[in-house]
Amino acid sequence: MRVALHLAYNGTHFLGSQTQKETSNTVLGELENVLKKLGIEQKVIASGRTDKGVHATMQICHIDLPPYWDDLQKLHRVLNTMLCDALHVKKITRVSNDFHARYSAKKRRYRYIIKATQSNPFEKDFVTFITHIDYKKIEQNIELFIGEHDFKQFMKTGSDVKSTKRVIYKAFAYKYKSYIVLNFEANGFLRSQIRLMVGALLQLNAYEIRQHLACTQTYKIKPAPANGLYLSKILY
Fold first, then answer.
1. Among 1, 138, 142, 226, which is most exposed with the fewest C-beta within 10 angstroms?
2. Mean pLDDT of 181-195
3. Looking at the annotation, which residues are catalytic?
4. Residue 128, class by beta-carbon neighbours within 10 Å (0-12 exposed, 13-18 middle, 19+ buried)?
């Protein structure tokens, strides 16, 4: 039986989401270690990867369960009892056998949270603090990313992908109290693409962003910190 696991996690405690040979301290490493203790040896497939320090309020994974694990409510309860506090299974749902957490996904949503105040120790792992920020400029320039573009200058070096073209369906910002929330929805994202887009919004003007996006000029952009980034939804 194939099921989808809906996960939320605090990325501060993990060295990324994907399993790694060097460490088990990843989201899927933690999940698979617990599943093995329950006699579930199958590999977990996620909708995509998140880097070290990046959070998720809705990550989707799929796994094929052995026949003796047909009580999904019990599995849900047991998993949350055994998993570390930084990882939580929100729900488990049965899906068709041809469902694939990564390849069946149509759209992905992320949000990036900035707080326009001095840093404080209670939120430092979850938002990026910037005391002086031009919100109007960000609100206008974020729309430059909407549409299909070649984002080869907005990805981490060393990425192995067949195509660097992506379609951004939505890109907008809004204020909530002292927070500025940046939202992105696309058919997919390259590695570190959102952090580099946010970095561009913070460091470049509209003309420079257009040049960098069109690959007619290259600007050195510092990626925005990982702690402000959240995978918020996968749409199928």
1. 1
2. 97
3. 51
4. buried
